[in-house]
Amino acid sequence: MTDTLTSPDPRTVAETGRALETDSPLEILRWATDRYGPRLTFATGFGAEGCVLIDVIGRHCLPVDIFTLDTGLLFPETSDLWKRLETRYGLTIRRVAPELSVEQQAAAHGPELWARQPDRCCDMRKVTPLVAQLSQFDAWITAIRREQTDHRADAQPVEWDKKFGLAKVNPLVRWTKKEVWAHLLEHDVPYNPLHDRGYPSVGCLPCTSHVNAGEDDRTGRWRGNAKTECGLHANVGGATEVGHAGTRS
Ligand code: SF4
């Protein structure tokens, strides 16, 4: 591979992605750590897929920076999972917080902004902090899988992220949901107990609801609102998910 991966050359990035198409998640992660060194990061929302990647990184002691966007509105179960993963694998998952606390946001923009202007709330509490983080790196790892959404169907193991201007590494891109859960159970990986209680996709507490049998996994996110994505995932040259999704079935 060449250094041109750090430039927005779609052809070079596409070639790299094709070369890694049949590699395992561990092989893709090893390639990424060799290629990008300390300029590589992983943003996780502790979805089932994110837990798989943390397990692979942790068990193989891969030198990967890991962070999570702590909106201040996480479920207690998610915060607890964060600690359990750190303890289990002996690693640190950095906390990245928005500029304003939830209270400061309420004082400046009114209470429960998420109920009135969810896009604005997500922009302040998720997108802006993520952009600031990614500007410090050359590549980031995501937990997206092709079968998750139509937007992700064309995702590659490595691709150029036009939205954020760095390379994007997607080690689980070929995996099915069944493979994700088989890995979690086989390796006894900690995961969010909410997945077993009807919450296949877990985001912020005010914007996540229970999903009924037969509903799509993401139905519980911003239920009753046209909004379906945080804004981290706009499909500009490939969709990007900071993985929250997960359910066994
Ligand atoms: S998911 Fe809801 S609470 Fe969280 S940042 Fe977005 S709008 Fe705000």
Helix segment tally: 8
CATH level 4 superfamily: HUPs
By CATH, the architecture is named 3-Layer(aba) Sandwich
Shape: globular
Q: Which percent range fits the helix content? A: 25-40%
C-alpha Rg (nearest Å): 17 Å
CATH hierarchy class name: Alpha Beta
Largest sheet: 6 strands, mixed
Provide the spatial order of strands within the biggest beta sheet: 3-2-1-4-6-5
Number of spatially distinct domains: 1
Mean pLDDT score, rounded? 88
Order of helices and strands: HHEHEHEHHHEEEH
The ligands found in this model are: iron/sulfur cluster
DSSP, total strands? 6
Show unreliable segments.
235-241, 243-247
Helix/strand class: alpha/beta
The proportion of strand residues reads 5-15%
Distance between the termini: 38 Å
- CATH topology term: Rossmann fold
Question: What structural keywords apply?
Answer:
Rossmann fold; alpha/beta; disordered C terminus; globular; 249 residues; six-stranded mixed beta sheet; binds iron/sulfur cluster; 8 helices; 9% strand
List the helices and strands and how they pair.
Elements (H helix, E strand, L loop, with lengths): L9 H10 L5 H12 L3 E4 L4 H12 L5 E5 L6 H14 L4 E3 L5 H8 L3 H4 L1 H17 L4 E3 L16 E4 L4 E4 L7 H10 L63
Parallel strand pairs: 1-2, 1-4, 2-3, 4-6
Antiparallel strand pairs: 5-6
Helix pairs in contact: 3-8
The protein binds iron/sulfur cluster.
The site of iron/sulfur cluster (SF4) has 13 residues, from α7.
